[in-house]
Design brief:
Layout: H1 4-17, H2 22-29, H3 33-40, H4 48-58, H5 62-67, H6 76-122, H7 128-155, E1 158-160, E2 167-168, H8 172-177, E3 180-181, E4 184-188, E5 195-201
Antiparallel strand pairs: 1-2, 1-5, 3-4, 4-5
Helix pairs in contact: 2-3, 6-7
Length: 207
């Protein structure tokens, strides 16, 4: 497990060693000092897109950042392996949460759509205007929520090619229009360029 509290304290100590305030460090990355504060209090960790540059600013490497301490060569490789496993576990957990949210949104919106459709169509004594309004509202809820669910599925985790086992994140358009069975979609692999039923996987394969 990644110790976010330890990492936060380490970032704070390194920042102070460099004579930077939270606001000054945040300015270098175009973020708010509140984001830096969240790092240092262990509420979040820096995004992968800025992690290398942050380490450069603080005079440390990524392995030390994820360890929350400076490392010597005697335990560097072992700690690097542990950090990679911890990151993989963290990524898998985050992707599971996102896919669970997709199920929740999809279930609630589908239930609301069906309820409004049935209510509008079959409840006796309801004015025609209300029937139409309920049906339209149900369609709008469904039409708005489905693209949200597909976007979540596209970005949470990866798809694995059945031919070369390459894992990739497809475009939103490719995900949207791909023939699918559950979370398995028939798509063209960007690596081997073959079309096949690509399964959803929570972490990226080592290639």
């Amino acid at each position: 497990m990644i110790d976010m509290i330890k990492i936060g304290k380490f970032i704070s100590a390194c920042r102070k060693e460099k004579g930077l305030t939270q606001a000054q460090l945040a300015e270098k990355f175009g973020i708010t000092d509140r984001a830096v504060s969240k790092w240092e209090t262990g509420k979040s960790i820096p995004d992968a897109s800025i992690m290398l540059e942050l380490c450069e600013q603080l005079g440390i490497n990524v392995n030390e950042l994820l360890s929350g301490e400076r490392l010597d060569m005697t335990n560097y490789n072992q700690q690097a392996e542990q950090n990679m496993l911890a990151l993989k576990e963290s990524e898998e957990r985050a992707n599971k949460n996102m896919l669970f949210m997709e199920v929740v949104i999809g279930t609630i919106s589908t239930a609301a759509f069906l309820a409004m459709l049935l209510f509008g169509a079959f409840v006796p004594g309801l004015a025609q205007g209300w029937r139409i309004a309920l049906c339209v509202a149900g369609f709008i809820i469904f039409a708005v929520s489905m693209p949200v669910c597909i976007k979540i599925e596209q970005t949470a985790g990866y798809y694995e090619c059945p031919h070369c086992k390459h894992t990739f994140v497809p475009s939103l358009k490719q995900t949207y229009f791909a023939q699918h069975m559950g979370r398995t979609r028939k798509m063209v692999c960007p690596h081997c360029h073959k079309k096949g039923w690509c399964k959803k996987t929570l972490t990226k394969n080592e290639e």
